[in-house]
Amino acid sequence: MGTVLSGLGLVKKYASATALAGVDVAVGERESLAIMGPSGSGKSTLLHTLAGIIRPDDGQVLLRGERIDHWGENRLSALRRRRFGFVFQSGQLLPELPAEENVALPLMLEGMLRKHAVARARRWFAPLGLEGLEQRRPGQLSGGQAQRVAIARALVAEPDVVFADEPTGALDQSTGEEVVRLLTSVTREQGASLVMVTHDADVAAHCDRILQVRDGRVHGHIQYTTAP
Ligand SMILES: Nc1ncnc2c1ncn2[C@@H]1O[C@H](COP(=O)(O)OP(=O)(O)OP(=O)(O)O)[C@@H](O)[C@H]1O
Hints:
The chain is an alpha/beta fold. It has helices at residues 43-50, 73-83, 99-109, 114-122, 143-155, 173-190, 201-204, and strands spanning 3-13, 18-28, 32-36, 58-63, 66-67, 84-87, 161-165, 193-197, 209-214, 217-223.
């Protein structure tokens, strides 16, 4: 399995805390990696550093072997739009746009005509169990449906890597399980890798591998031979 994304010796310090104290991590082709650890252990900082949102103080981030951590802001934001997809805990959809336009947004931002972008966006509704909800606005969707729309938006531009930060954090247990099951399976089918921060061991168990982080360091790995 080839490596898509890697972090080597990542260090990130804030005035009051060392969020990352030298982290090595590699994410394989189509692999799903869960990042777990106590509150304040550096999970979100690690995800944001791998995604080119936070610049590390030391160490390197490589996408398909190419170093990206020292790229300029414009180049990094174009990379994030084209090659990465993002799913957050909640509140990431634009309330005034119908679901299909929310999904189409990354394509429109890249200059695709609205009707073409929406046509491509609609293809994601059936695989995510969202058929018939294309015209609904986010306020007319349940929490689980809104997260599935967010997953469709993260995948629509066919990214190399999807980053998810507590994607089930605002959902009840069974809705969260359904969302993570779809997130891991659809991401894999699309050919992308997944990096997901979660507090929830049941959610993490849907990933191929779990990275345990503690005090800004990798504390351990759990490798599943087959994800559920
Ligand atoms: N912008 C910031 N400024 C100062 N300190 C920060 C900043 N971001 C994170 N930290 C500190 O870095 C450490 C790691 O934070 P991080 O958010 O990565 O942890 P986490 O494991 O994601 O926590 P949680 O599970 O509570 O979200 C913490 O001590 C935090 O207080």
